[in-house]
Structure formats: C-alpha cells, structure tokens
Amino acid sequence: MALLSEEDVRRMSGNGTRGPVVVRRDQVLTPGAKDYLQAHRIQVVYPQGGGREDAPAGASSIPEYRTLFGAVLSEKPEHMTHLKGNVLVFKDHPRIAFRGWIDTLEGEVLLAQQAAAGEGLPTLAEELEEVLAFVRRFIRFDVLEEPVGEFCLCGYTPDELREYSHYPERHFGQGHFLPHYTDGPALLALNRVRTVARQSELAAYAAFRSGEGEVSRPDILLGLNRLSSLLWIMMVKRKAGRYERS
Prior knowledge:
Elements: E1 2-4, H1 6-12, E2 21-22, E3 27-29, H2 31-39, E4 44-46, E5 60-61, E6 65-67, E7 72-73, E8 80-84, E9 87-90, H3 94-118, H4 122-136, H5 138-143, H6 158-166, H7 168-172, H8 185-208, H9 218-239
Parallel strand pairs: 1-3, 2-4, 4-5, 6-9
Antiparallel strand pairs: 6-7, 8-9
C-alpha cells in the first residue's frame, strides 16, 4: 500500500483549487491528508471499488466511471479526464480546454512576477501575487461550481476597473499606447499575461455557452474580463512610471 501524505493531496488538488482527489485501491490516506481534505471540503473519489475504512467524511465510494454520453467504464482511458467527480469527458472538451488556459495564465503571471522582481519593482510583484491568487481560484469556480462572488482586485472594484482601463489618461496621465520592445521586460510580461487572460475569457465563453449563445457562468466571464482590464491598468501605470523601484 502506498501512503498519500498531506503534501501529496495538496499537490493533487492544486492546493485546494482543483479537486477532486482520486485515490486508487492501492493507496491509503494518512491522518494529516484526511484532515486537509475535510478542512478544504475537497471531494475524494474511489473509482475502483466500494467504501473504504480510511475514507474521510464526505468521500465518494464510486464503483465506476461515467461519461456524458451514458457509458459506464471500470477504468479511466488515457484520452479522457475528469470533468467533475467520477464523470469523464474527452480531453478536448471545452471546459477542459478552459482549465488548460487557466493553467497557462497562472504560469504567465509567475513569469511576470519574476520580470517585475528583476526590474526592482516590488509593488508590482506584490500586486501580481494578488492576481495569481485570483487566477488560481478559477479551477475551483468551475469544478466545484462555486460562484465568483463580489471581488476587488488591487483596490479596484469591477466598475472601477472598467472605468480606469477605458480612460487611463484621465486617471493616470497616460493614454492608450502600443507596447514596444524598448518598454522593458516587466511591461512586456504584463502584456503577455493580458493577452492570455483575454484568451482565457474566450475559452470560458466556449465552455459555458449554450447552443443558443446563452452563458451559464457570466460571473466567470466577468471575472476574467475585469482581470484583463486590471492588467492593462498595470501596463499603463508601468509606462507612466507609477511603480517605484526598490
């Protein structure tokens, strides 16, 4: 039997942002792992058998995988992945593609933080840490169907993000501009994050729209739209010299 520690389940669940955690028949959860899963309300799935004595409260004992088209499978094919719980979909499913864009967005934010730190811009790096925390919640919003709810990013409400990004000269003394290679690594990294945020918004629309074009998760689209607005504001502030160097 292989032991799954708290560190193991943290990694498997993306530090509580992804879930569920699938535990194989030959794996056993340590007490610390069970406590972590219970505290963070992370679903545990046992896809290959009945109940388990080591299962934390609320764990699912599921004897098979199911698909959206009604098939029941005893093993997970490599070309399929979890949509939610024991429900499998093909890996090109729009919601899986959306989650892939969120992973990419997370990676780009980290690289932008590195660029900001490299240019001696600690305030910008700290603001990007807040952005990173927000981005990491989107997988949870999708998988657990949690609402985005009210949010404020780097001190801006959604309405302020829209206003300030549309009229930057009014608020920062710097008008709209096209990035240039001489603008420096931090600004160009911000621009890249902004473009990935826009692509993530498009992926969300594809994932959550109906055949008639209606959207089931407008809160996710709004969150990503305002995130791209924030990133543009950061670019404007960097261009205007609003971030002090350390």
